[in-house]
Amino acid sequence: MKLYHQPRTRSARVRWMLGELGLASQTEIQEVNVFVGEGRKPEYLAIHPHGFVPALEDDGGVLLESSAICLYLVDRYGDGKLAPTPGTFARGKYYEWMVYIPATVDPCLETIMFHTAFLPESHRIPVLVERAKKNWSKKIQPRLSSALERGPWLLGDEFTAADVILGSALAWARVAGVLEDAPPIGAYMERITARPAFQEAYAA
């Protein structure tokens, strides 16, 4: 197995997932510094047509998209752990969160980060930051806070791959300066950041 990875990107959540499954030592990590253009090299574009990370090679094929990769890893290597039982309503909620975070939460945070830190100052658009911060504070964070009140984990008593996706997004929100560490989110992040697999994945 081989993970194409760049620290401080969404590929860190895949590296975290590999750790939770005990697969980290069996996985080759190939860093692709997308911040300096390595993702645009022809040899990498043959792996990921958009030049992004993560990409995972396994069983003779390549998988893209962090949530899809985590779903695959849990189904193939989780031995029934880290996900609710297939066919149950809890499994449906698990899918919901695995889609909602990359579809709704990540783009909001990405807008804030790009227009406050990543882009050259001349390319930043403050009004986009204002809109994204309003969306975060008025809609997204309240929804996450409400879901985590049932804790200790996103789906209740059991830690799942959905916590990997959410925990990584909240870590990003903390870097972006928009995360309110009041309960229940603050306590949730204490549990997340205490996990050895999280610490290893985010050490770089």
Structural features, described:
The protein is α+β, with helices and mostly antiparallel strands. It is 54% helix and 8% strand. A 4-stranded mixed β-sheet has the order 2-1-3-4, with helices on one face. Helix 4 packs antiparallel against helix 5, helix 4 (89-118) runs parallel beside helix 6 and helix 6 (161-176) packs across helix 7 (185-193). The model has no long low-confidence stretch (mean pLDDT 96).
* Known CATH architecture of the largest domain: Up-down Bundle
Q: Tell me, rounded to a whole number, the average pLDDT.
A: 96
* Largest sheet: number of strands, sense, barrel closure: 4 strands, mixed
Structural class: alpha+beta
Q: What's the overall geometry?
A: globular
**What's the β-strand tally?**
4
What is this structure, in a nutshell?
This protein has 204 residues and is an alpha+beta fold. It is built from eight helices and four strands; from the N terminus they run βαβαββαααααα. The model has no long low-confidence stretch (mean pLDDT 96).
Give the topology.
Elements: E1 2-5, H1 11-20, E2 28-31, H2 42-45, E3 55-58, E4 61-64, H3 66-77, H4 89-118, H5 126-148, H6 161-176, H7 185-193, H8 196-201
Parallel strand pairs: 1-2
Antiparallel strand pairs: 1-3, 3-4
Helix pairs in contact: 1-3, 1-6, 4-5, 4-6, 6-7
Which key terms come to mind for this protein?
204 residues, alpha+beta, Glutaredoxin, Glutathione S-transferase Yfyf (Class Pi), Chain A, domain 2, globular
